[in-house]
Write the structure tokens for this entry.
Amino acid sequence: MSTAPAATSAVNESAGMPKSMVPDPGWFDSDRTKFEDWWRGIRLFLKSNRVNGTDDRITAILARLRGGVTEIYAQKKLDELDEEDDTQDWDNFVKEIKTTFSDKSKAADAKWKIEIFKQGKRNTADFIIEFEALAMKADTDELHAIFLLKKNAQQDIIKTVLGYPLMAMPETLKE
């Protein structure tokens, strides 16, 4: 990925705001294996540069799509933005771009990995962080995630949690 121009940072500097500490994520060029990293980078970049308006965020993202299918997608979305009576919805745009460019094999891998992911001698906090990341990537439903957590975490930890009084017992994965 080459570096895309950081027009937003220049605008922020001229407005008297400090330069962004988050680097521009550069171009996305249709390589689905790199989409997840690029997507995280562009979200951080938009947030740190205070790009808040839906059309502004979508425009900034479309400006960084280059080559092949991504260029065609960007042109299609730009045409939609140009239509006067068409208002863009951020949540729909996010869902669409993720569906279009996400690496489907990563989700399949995560579904397989979460089924066999065991804590072993891992630190509990590290295990929980990795488990939650896998559960999110695998799009695992809450009940199945709790089942897998009980099955694959160290048993003494599960016994401790299940030994809580009913009022303090966690009922969701986040708890």
User: Anything to note?
Assistant: Residues 55 and 88 are 7 Å apart (CA to CA).
